[in-house]
What does this fold into?
Amino acid sequence: MQFFVDTADVDEIRNLAATGLVDGVTTNPSLIAKSGRDFIEVIKEICDLVDGPVSAEVAATDHDTMLAEGRKLAKIADNVAVKVPLTPDGLKTCKTLADAGTKVNVTLCFSPGQAILAAKAGAAFISPFVGRLDDISSDGMALIDEICTVYSNYTDFETKVLVASIRSPQHVIEAAKIGADVCTVPPGVLWQLFKHPLTDAGLKAFLADWAETGQSILGN
Ligand code: G3P
It folds into this structure.
């Protein structure tokens, strides 16, 4: 499973990238607004921080303008993945960009039917929003299971399932059990994945017992 970090906070990305466990980054207009940074500048900085795909979302809703914005975003760095919404114009733009060799992340996916269309449009990634489905008492993980099942039936579908709108480590674990390709994880949730009280207690006990030996592995 690949881990993308879902943020435009450069400091958060830098800290998590240092773990060696970050395979990419996703942003969206809300995350860019939250960063308070210039869009082009912050995407360039993020692309310099991680080698993997960095999703940068278009802001237009019509095909012609989406295409112009997407082409501009793709020129920022080789690892930019252009993000488009799952609309008719968005998928038309996806097809045009994908046919030209640009990676496209199709976002705001909430049904298996939408995911089929995105795969047919040549999307590199499909982003189903599990948290927002859970928020309305729908089953976000069931959607991931359906999409992974549908995609596994067609060898010509090369779109990776990028689980988005993740709210907890349990979402990551459930996505991994299903076999989703990627999880894009808010920084706080990614740090939570490391944590377990028994790990903390066990390490504390190990260190206390080691101190009793009076030894030092590296010597004095
Ligand atoms: O990448 C999409 C993600 O940022 C949406 O998450 O929490 O706004 O539903 P959320």
About this structure: The chain has eleven helices and eight strands.
